[in-house]
Amino acid sequence: xxxxxxxxxxxxxxxxxxxxxxxxxxxxxxxxxxxxxxxxxxxxxxxxxxxxxxxxxxxxxxxxxxxxxxxxxxxxxxxxxxxxxxxxxxxxxxxxxxxxxxxxxxxxxxxxxxxxxxxxxxxxxxxxxxxxxxxxxxxxxxxxxxxxxxxxxxxxxxxxxxxxxxxxxxxxxxxxxxxxxxxxxxxxxxxxxxxxxxxxxxxxxxxxxxxxxxxxxxxxxxxxxxxxxxxxxxxxxxxxxxxxxxxxxxxxxxxxxxxxxxxxxxxxxxxxxxxxxxxxxxxxxxxxxxxxxxxxxxxxxxxxxxxxxxxxxxxxxxxxxxxxxxxxxxxxxxxxxxxxxxxxxxxxxxxxxxxxxxxxxxxxxxxxx
Length: 369
Hints:
By secondary structure, the chain is an alpha/beta fold. It has two domains: about 40-130, no CATH class; about 135-320 and about 335-365, no CATH class. Helix content is about 50%, strand content about 10%. It contains 16 helices and five strands. The protein has helices spanning about 1-10, 15-30, 40-45, 45-55, 60-70, 85-95, 100-105, 110-125, 130-135, 140-155, 215-220, 225-230, 260-285, 290, 300-315, 345-369; strands at about 160-170, 190-195, 200-210, 235-240, 250. It has a five-stranded mixed beta sheet. Helix 6 (about 85-95) crosses helix 8 (about 110-125), helix 8 (about 110-125) packs across helix 15 and helix 10 (about 140-155) packs across helix 13. Residues about 5-10 and about 325-340 have low confidence and may be disordered. Belongs to the HARBI1 family. It comes from Pieris macdunnoughi. Its main location: cytoplasm. It is found in: Cytoplasm; Nucleus.
């Protein structure tokens, strides 16, 4: 450090007197610490404008302060310390805009380094509450309610969740493994798997795989597969697209339906599975930071993805919807560009049996009506 200072001033002598003068001059040249005024958003905006800018209501923000405020408290209030409420509001503003962290910090009179630290501390504090807000149904009664809600959509039986993956764009992480994060669309991303219920609530989330990893690989290495294979959720199934291998517990659509019953099966499967696409749309629209590109270090990407998913579920539980959100709209599913897995005879037989028993009878019921 001493030699660096001497080189900066182009001084070769290291005498005690000259060195002391150099240090004094260096200290005097340092920028003075600036304490910028902070305007309290709770008092500045009314309820509608506040929710539009921070994506949550004032009531929910204050509830968050009581839930995670103790994890965000500073040991002292000296040097204009940032309060838990200010930390949460800054983080929500970053989630709601998707801009650079410095822009969010400027709105709250904070430096870039302070804003960066605050955003990631709050994100990790929210992630601690993961098990309370993101979980598969735990009881038989809860499973029954989830299955009943799915049945109301298009009469598909015994569905406990719709599964799919979505790519969250990130900056190139650099290093030897950077290309692992390049997906098939030639962008860097985290391939995030989610299981969603009929109310667009995220029931299971995996956000740790690079963008080049296939959806089926993520599922095959997840705890969810063990959970549903062991029938801990009863005799229920998931619905997925043809990027997943057909299983008794993971039903995919037919590639080329021929009969009326097969077409009815495909229509019911696709309409029921549509909830996962809608959930991704609502999630990314509420928090554009994950809908555009996360401009943060790779180690900070996962906490932001998980924390925004938790907040998405909190909004659903508290019945908070954005003014421009159309929760009941239907998303037209895109053409499947990824690899479609070959279907084994046993799994095909099980699906065909379901079509020939349940969907044929359902087709007959609809014809009589």
